[in-house]
Amino acid sequence: MIPKIVLSLLLGIMFSHSISAQDKPHLSVSGSLKNPQIIAFDNLEQLEPLIDIHSVHDFAWSPDGSTFLVADHYRLVLYTVSDFMAEPRVIEIEHPDNCSNWYCGIDSIKFLPDGDQFALHTTPHTIAIYDFATLKPVRELSGISGFNADYTLRASAFKGEIRIVDALTEAVIETYYYEELEDCDYVCGIPSPIFSSDNRYVIYSGLYTEYTGIIDRETGEITSPIDTREVVGFTTDGRMIISLGIEPGYLSRGVVFTDVLTGKQVMWLDFPVATQPVFAPDGSGLMAVSGVDPFSGPNAYQSAMMVGFYDYDTLIQAESLTWEDAIYRFWTGESAGTVQDYSFINKVEFSPDGKYLVSLRTNGEGIIWGVSP
Fold first, then answer.
1. Is-contact 59 348, C-beta < 8 A?
2. Nearest CA to 205 among 195, 219, 190, 218?
3. Residue ranges covered by each domain of the chain
4. Contact, 326 vs 308, CB < 8 A?
5. What does the pLDDT average to over 293-320?
6. Hey, how many other C-beta atoms are within 10 angstroms of the C-beta on 13?
7. Could you give the residue ranges of the DSSP H alpha helices within 195-336?
8. Can you tell me the distance from the alpha carbon of 210 to that of 223, in angstroms, rounded to the nearest whole number?
9. What is the tens place of the pLDDT at every residue in 246-286?
10. Does residue 199 register a pLDDT over 50?
11. Secondary-structure percent of the chain, ordered helix, strand, coil, rounded to 5
């Protein structure tokens, strides 16, 4: 039976074609692409911009590192990493006539761990799983968030219940309960629970500590409340929960590391307007996080954007560090803008081979960084 997503009016009929000269804006070379080196502790000072990114909603590396996939409003563009400037393949997605502004279309793309499929999140809110070989949709999912890494499970929270469901059949697998506060509006709620990489733990967190907890699906135990809010992920070893230090109505003030077994805060990294930290794929412990230099402007909105690097093994032994404690940091050469018109870096990510680091801003502009020989 053909999945209903194939007939979806939202995603429409897809086709590939060559990019013409006038609509080839996504990548432009700004440095040497010959034999880039693996980014490591001993060559951070040699990092330089290699490729400029333009008009992109999101990007993703294929797990084998061979393809760099970018998305704009309603197009997927596939670049071959071994030859970034070779003509890419383009997949266009037909979109509704009433949804044509910047915030419509493709929100994000994410490869599943095996690399054979990727998830495409679009607005109006739809999630579809695509086959990477054919670039065709194979199934549509209910819900818009709370999925595990391979999109087989989904966790949702509502009115005192957290349900774990089969993402394919929507059958409820497990139900857990939390105490809901009286006379509390939507901001007290839980936006989206997060699975650990092995699916054992589910972390739920709202803006208030009463709505935070760790579910151990193996034992059924719940640790609540926990010393964190606004959870965004886990460290590579799965031992620490990563969350952004956000107070209601404010920008991120830094990064919080919380022990997944105890729910207690272990380390606080003071890094203004921080993004989710990322780790070099070689297991060296090299960690990158972006934010702004608070001394470079009158406020966060008009400050210079920067990326800082840390040795995670050393960092996690400290109770607190600041952006000034980074073993190396560089300024991206951009400012966030003004209070009225600003765009921060909202995503940094290493390539699977560790040779590139991408920084992407909320306005769709970004840079692929690397170390030339």
1. no
2. 190
3. 148-226
4. yes
5. 88
6. 10
7. 312-315
8. 11
9. 655 556 789 999 999 999 999 999 998 899 999 999 999 99
10. yes
11. 10, 45, 50
